Amino acid sequence: MAKSRYEYVKQFELDDSALPGTWMVVRIDGRGFHGFTDMHKFEKPNDLRAIHLMNRAALEVVRNIRDIIIAYGQSDEYSFVLPASSTLYSRRISKITSTIVSLFASNYTMHWAEYFPDTKLLVPPCFDARLVCYPTQKTLRDYLSWRQADCHINNLYNTSFWAIVHSGKTEQEAEERLRGTFSKDKNEILFSDFNINYNTLEAVYRKGSVIIRQETEVKSVSQKSGEEVVRLRRLPAVLHDDIISNEFWKEHPELLVSSQEYE
Amino acid sequence: MAKSRYEYVKQFELDDSALPGTWMVVRIDGRGFHGFTDMHKFEKPNDLRAIHLMNRAALEVVRNIRDIIIAYGQSDEYSFVLPASSTLYSRRISKITSTIVSLFASNYTMHWAEYFPDTKLLVPPCFDARLVCYPTQKTLRDYLSWRQADCHINNLYNTSFWAIVHSGKTEQEAEERLRGTFSKDKNEILFSDFNINYNTLEAVYRKGSVIIRQETEVKSVSQKSGEEVVRLRRLPAVLHDDIISNEFWKEHPELLVSSQEYE
Amino acid sequence: MAKSRYEYVKQFELDDSALPGTWMVVRIDGRGFHGFTDMHKFEKPNDLRAIHLMNRAALEVVRNIRDIIIAYGQSDEYSFVLPASSTLYSRRISKITSTIVSLFASNYTMHWAEYFPDTKLLVPPCFDARLVCYPTQKTLRDYLSWRQADCHINNLYNTSFWAIVHSGKTEQEAEERLRGTFSKDKNEILFSDFNINYNTLEAVYRKGSVIIRQETEVKSVSQKSGEEVVRLRRLPAVLHDDIISNEFWKEHPELLVSSQEYE
Amino acid sequence: MAKSRYEYVKQFELDDSALPGTWMVVRIDGRGFHGFTDMHKFEKPNDLRAIHLMNRAALEVVRNIRDIIIAYGQSDEYSFVLPASSTLYSRRISKITSTIVSLFASNYTMHWAEYFPDTKLLVPPCFDARLVCYPTQKTLRDYLSWRQADCHINNLYNTSFWAIVHSGKTEQEAEERLRGTFSKDKNEILFSDFNINYNTLEAVYRKGSVIIRQETEVKSVSQKSGEEVVRLRRLPAVLHDDIISNEFWKEHPELLVSSQEYE
After folding, report:
1. B19 interfacial to chain D (CB closer than 8 Å)
2. Looking at residue D93, which CATH number applies to its domain?
3. pLDDT tens for each residue of D240-253
4. Which residue, among A107, A41, A40, has the nearest Cα to A73 in the 3D structure?
5. Looking at CA atoms only, how far is residue C209 from chain B in angstroms?
């Protein structure tokens, strides 16, 4: 194809490769989601439709980008993990980050009506994203633990806060009631005042959502013989497991094996 | 809010600020759009519905991000320009890039049905994005000229190619016919064989689309007096002007004034 | 040459190119020079031997690295400017920075005895360095003005401080005397108490040192005819001019012409 | 201290921190050392004086920068390793790299006369430097193995090459003789033609030089009692060990322990 004399401006595009041999985490975050949730009347403290929509968008991203080996989401954020050995897009930070965040945003928009059949999408959702490199399995696991600990801290607060509000107090009163309290205090308030045992709440709220690829039976009908055929395929699935403890990682040893060549 | 012992992983997020005093251009590009256009049966060489949808998504981005002073789009790409003086998100590259690309993707998805009322959106669109810094007015203008020259080169080729194909040839035959030809040859083919004067084709195809903020009369009815009120506001509008020549920049001196403090 | 199986580690070397079309400034700074000047009994407020040694080291750097078009030094720092059009070492930041700083350090060490014939060099001098990009002529000039204004501010302070100390006061008393004073106050102290008209002090102290390449007559004797030949060559020379005002730049228009292709 | 209106240019200094939790390796390399060794008539294939001078300069760098835990040198290059846990200069790449390379250059210059008492230093030595991050113990060890394997490959070649040249052949003839040969061929040439058993050559040539801090008995005389006092201190020392094999690392477990918090 012909080239113009302006072609030289291409050289201003600098290389932005991520350090090889490190885990790459792309975390997307809702922008202005406080207003977004108000506008669309999300239920508080948690709106299960919204959680399922976030998980659906993330699931489509994981289906699309094969290198992602685990994703973790809570509230209006989702983290996608690419292994240390990944060479996706030559590890170019902008390319990886923008592809993931735009796929997430378009899926969120496209599938909105399935999860919110009675609520019209009034404004397009917006997410920002960043890519962070973690050099070792330990630092990667600590990253994921950080997000799940954050989920716990926020959800315990929000559950307490909205229990107080739903009981007839103002938001300001709820805030004052919780100021300076520790986890055990909030557990106590929930139990004594609202008869809620926090630890028995559904895991989806307390633990957030984890997506990994799991061996799954896929049934299809043979076009030739008409018989049903069952095959095993690794398909992404949403779990609500504790990913801080060692157990999860022992059950899924394949998650960390990918970076063994570097450690 | 309480903090966990995993908090230390936050320090792995490195600063990625763009050099101050430089123009920032975020260019988004359709990913896998060859398949996307086939799947949704886009008209060739240009599908006006698709162009209008691209422009609508870009317009919404420009409405949302006030710092953008000019945007230019053609084919499945769009460039958004932030002035040298912009301090949007402290000039953090990931934050700016991801916000723009996710807004674009969700707007494209959300407004699809308005522009393709008879075509169901089958897969979510995906765009990648990168941010490039240009140090001076001249290099910025050369960047925009590069993209518009590219539009011209591609559109002349595509117009010729599809004219040949629509006349009954195979795509391979069209390709062979055009191999090694220069602009004047393609103009000649279009004129002699298909009676098309390329230069009289609509500017939207030949020049692509430019978005700038223009003084616009906005009418509203005063709630108090019931009278119609006309105010002037600067609102983004889509043009199909030549942005390579000096004329455009002389007509819109405010576009380059913003970086005067540095030049 | 044979390759080992460890060769793969080379891929961890990431590209660190400076943005094209920007002025590159490498500023070196003495590390631990407070102790260094005490140890070698530098005269206060200024030691002319030390200034000449700094200038000599810088001159050798400029002789060696042809792309440097201007350098500016004061106190224990020196800035070397590469034009926006420079492609030295493909504009790799580490390569440029390390080459300049190591040349400076070895020249400073090697020429020490010429400038300090009676003082043994007790410890090797150490300098750190950084490369900063400036996108336009204006920002580059403002950078150089910043350093020369800094020279003025520090030198006026130091001249006043050491005048007070040399008159018999303690360093603490001198510090207290100067606390909160403005330029005009220090000028007044110098004039009233010590009969020093600051503005008539030698420019080398007040303005620092500038190195540019100047047309110079170079004489040599022809080996053939035995006659003396005079040729004009552009050789680096040390000046003590004011580089903040426009005059200097009008006298040396070639300094800024190099980046014209970008502005 | 007063500030000038040019102060704003400081914001163009961007952050260049190395990724936390990664090993930082600064490798310095002689610039134009081919000419430098010719000019100063270095002995070929190896000049022991030059090796000792390189080691001395490196030793002084290690003494000065406490965070360096191991250094490895061969030919005209030296690598300095900072542990994953190091926070030296907030891990700023330019600061670390320039400090090490300038210290190396000034030490090399300052100590020249001790190692080359009969050879005047004609030009100042120059070194470039780069900092590379390695995410894990394994990649760090592979880096060091890469450099030591390189030392072996080059030294075997050079030893063969100069043996042939010293036997009366031209450099071109030596080059041709060695073209396409493997290690075993060169070993064979050395043994058959020159009666040299390569593997019994001194380790300093075959293995290069390693600097680590070792427990050392330091004797001093008590000023009080006049008695000799012996204390154990960890002081840097030069070894010529094999650092590719596991043995070395088992003998010095403290070298890798520093990054345990991340792995």
Report:
1. yes
2. 3.30.70.3000
3. 999 999 999 999 99
4. A107
5. 26
